[in-house]
Amino acid sequence: QVQLVVSGGGLVQAGGSLRLSCRTLGLIFEYNEMGWFRQAPGKQRELVASINGGHRTNFIDSVKCRFTISRDNDKASVFLEMNDLKPEDTGVYYCNVKSARLAWGQGTQVTVSS
Question: Which residues, given as ranges, of the chain have pLDDT below 50?
């Protein structure tokens, strides 16, 4: 069974930075396009960023130029570097394959205060 272990969230003031990490266990990681998702209070979960095996990345418009996604295939891990955080970035962040076909892990809370 695949496990998705996320860490790195927290409380930060607007303009601050956080780095999220997601370690996968039991996944043939290098063949999967990975994604970071977030669920804001009262909203549906959305895909924020993705990265494929060739390190090609995609972002939603609201985080472009502020977030960076990267991966380490040797460590079966994917990362999300978040800079210039805004209150609207608040939510629970999860990783999954881009298609979101795996069971969700516990996620990590990111809270950005104004």
Answer: none
